[in-house]
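Aim 2, interim progress. The first record below pairs a target sequence with its C-alpha cells.
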Amino acid sequence: MSVQATRRLVLQWTLRNATCPVLNLRTILGSDNVRQRGFMTCRLLCSTHNQTSTLHQHTDLSQLQLQPGRELSIRALLDMGFTDTQADQLLEAANKGRGGQSEHASSTLMALFVLGLNPSSVLKVLEKCPELFYVKGTQLQQRMDNLRRLGLLEGSLQRVVSHYPQILTLPLRRVNTVARFLREKCAFTVQQATDIIRDSPAVVQDDLGQLEYKFQYTYFRMGVKQAEMVKSKLFRVTLEEVRCRHSFLERRGLYQTPDKKGQTLIVNPKLKDILAVAEETYLADIAMATREEFKVFQKMMAREWQEEDEEQDRDMGADSDDDDEEEDEDEEDMKSGYRQRRKK
C-alpha cells in the first residue's frame, strides 16, 4: 500500500464516520502540512479518555485538543480497518504496558498507517515491539525520515520496520553512529552500509567493538572483501558462529587464509555458502562432517576461547600503560586491532 493511497484511505475512513461538525473535508485538506493533516485525522479517529458515546457526537475540536490523555476505542480501531479480533488484540496490547494505555498510542498508529502498513502489519509490528506505543508520533516520523536519508526508500523501509520494529525505538544518534561506523571503520560504501541496515537491521544495536572484530576477522582471517560480506548477510550471524564454522573448515583442510596476493592452494567456499545456510546444509555440503563431530568441535572451541580471554586479560593487565596509545586508521592498524582482545 503506497503512502498516498494510505492517506486517502485514512481520510475516507474519517469522513465516512465523522460526526464532529467542526471537522470537515475542507478543514483537513486545507492544511498545508501533511503531518498536521494526519494529526487532525487521528484526533477524530480516537476518543477522549473515559468519554461516553454521546460525547463522540458533540465534542468541539478545541475541547478535544485540550485532552492530553486520549484513549484508543474499539470503534476507532474498527474505523481504521481492523477486524473485531484485531481490534481486541491491539487494545489489549496497548493497555498492558507501563501502567495502562499510553497517550501516544493514537499517534503511533497514525504514523504506521502513513508509512504504508495495512492493519494486519500494524498489529504484528506492535505485538513484536509494544514499546512503540510509548514513542511520540513526531519522534517516530523523525526516525522514519532519518532512515530514508540513510537510503531506505519506500518498500525497503516498510520491510525493515515490519521485520525489526525495534529500530524505531532507538535515538537518531545511535542509528547514524552505526551507519557512519560501517562506512568509516569498515570501509563499506554508502550503498553497502544501507544494504546492511536493510538486510540486517538488528546491527544497529550491536556492540561496536564486537562489530569491528567481526568485520576484521572476516576481512583479514578469512580474506573476504566487503562486497561478499554484504551479499552473504554477514551481520545476521553472531561472531561465535562465524569463527566456529570457519575454524571447523580450516582444521579439516577445507579453507585457507589467502596470502598477500589473495591466493590460496585450494578453492575456498564462498562466505554465503558457509554462513547463509542451515547447519544441516553446511555440514553436509561444505564441511562434509556429522553433527556429532561439529558439536564436539564447538565445545573444544569454547574452551579455547575462554583460555584465550583469560590469558589476554592477564596480558592487558601487565601492559595497561600502553592502553592510551592512539591507532591510525590505515589497514595495518586495523590488522593490529584485529589481534587485540576479543571484546565480550
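The second target in this work package is listed in the same format:
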Amino acid sequence: MVKFGSFDSICQTAALVVCPLIGSDQGIEPSCYSRNVEISGTLIFQPSTCFIHIVAIIMTAIMIFHIRSKYTAVGRKEIIMFFYLYAIIELLAIFLDSGIIPTSNVSYPWFAAVYTGLVAAAYCCLLINGFVGFQFAEDGTPLSLWFLRLSCLAVFGVSLFIAIATFKNIAGFNFAKPLALWIIYILWPLICTVIYIVSQLVLVFRTLDDRWPIGDIVFGTAFFTIAQVILFAFSVTICDAIKHYIDGLFFFTLCMLLSVMMVYKYWDSITREDLEFSVGSKATVWEVKDPLLAGGDEYVEDNGSNYNGAPASLVGGVSGKQLYNAPPLTGVVGRNGYPTGERY
C-alpha cells in the first residue's frame, strides 16, 4: 500500500529510476523485474521497456512535425515545448532504465536528478498549457512564452536540487526519509494532471460547440489512470505471471505514451488553423479571372511572352540597352533566334 512520503512499497513493486538511490545505501530493490539481455558483452535491463521508449521518441517526433506544420494554430509554440520535454525524458530514460548508465556509477545520481527535474518541468508545462486556451495572455507572445519557459525552468531547478540533495544527504535532506522527493516525483504529477483535465473540460463546455474533444480527454485520462494502477498495484503480479519477461514498467511506459498521444489528439481537435494566414508545404494555385481579358463565358489564360523566348535577365551577356537600341546586326542567325556575331 502506498504511504504518503514513503517509497518503500512503491519501489518494492516497480523499478523506478530513483529507487536505487533512496531508502538505504543499497537502495530499494523491486520484488520482481523483467529479464535482462546481453548485447556485445553489455547487460541491458528492461529491454522491452527500452523498445517502448524508442517508439515514444519516434511518435513524439511525428507529433512535433504536425504541430509545427499548423503555423497559425492557437497555443502551437506552448504545446510543442511539452512534447520536446517528453522526448528528452524518454531519451534519458533509455540510458537509466536499461542500465547503460550503471546505478553504481558516480554519474547515475546526477542523471537521475536531471530526469526527476525534467519530469516535474514537463508536468508544469502541461499545467500551464491547460490555461493557454483561456487567453489570459495571448498565445505565442513573448509574455506567454517566457512565462512558460521561466516557470518550467524554476520547477526544473528546484526539483533537480531536491533530488540531488536527497541522493547525497546534503542541505538537510535524507535518502532514508525522502518526503520532498516523494512530493515532486509522485504527488506533483497527479496535481498537474488533475488541474489540466478539469481546465480542459471547463474550456470545452464553456467555449466550444463541438463536444467530440471530450472523448480525447476521457481516453487520455483513462490511459493515465491505467498506467498508475498497473505500475503501483499490479506490476509484481504481471511480472510473475509472464515469468519475468516484462513487468508493470513496460505497460506503464506504453500507457503514458498513449496518454501523451491523446494530449496531442485533443489539442489538434480544438485548434483550427487560420487558412488565410497559414503557410502550407504545398504550392497554392491561384486562379485569376478578369472579364476584361477575355470575352464570352470562357476565359483564356495568357501564357505568351512579349519577348518570344528571350530570357528574363541576361547575366554575362548583352545589356537591355544593347539588345533593343543597338542597330541590327547583319550576320548569321543562331539556333535560338539571336545573331551569332558572325558576318556573312
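Confidence is low (pLDDT under 50) at residues 274-289, 298-302, 304-317. This observation will shape the mutagenesis plan for the next reporting period.
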